[in-house]
């Protein structure tokens, strides 16, 4: 009877200690998980900042491309105008040659 009682007493002392150890281990794992989550969030925020910078640069490049396209179109219109003048001048020269 004493042996049974001492066994129950020993178990009643060990069980809370084992639970406290498991709780401490779980708390440590929770802290590690929170640290990893914090590091991941930091990395995500850094990448988001880089994406925003890249998007801004792309918008600037798109604006420059649009400006260059406008300049190209203006230059092409001027070339077409000069070519039309050249063609008209050739026609006039040919007509003058026919008169002589």
- Report on the biggest sheet: none
Average pLDDT figure? 89
Strand content: under 5%
Secondary structure: helix percent: over 70%
Give me some keywords for this one.
100 residues, mainly alpha, rod-shaped
Kindly describe this structure.
This protein is mostly helical. It contains one helix and no strands. The radius of gyration is 43 Å and the shape is rod-shaped. The N and C termini lie far apart (145 Å). The relative contact order is 0.03. The model has no long low-confidence stretch (mean pLDDT 89).
Topology:
Blueprint: H1 2-99
Quick recap of the structure?
This protein has one helix at residues 2-99. The protein is mainly α.
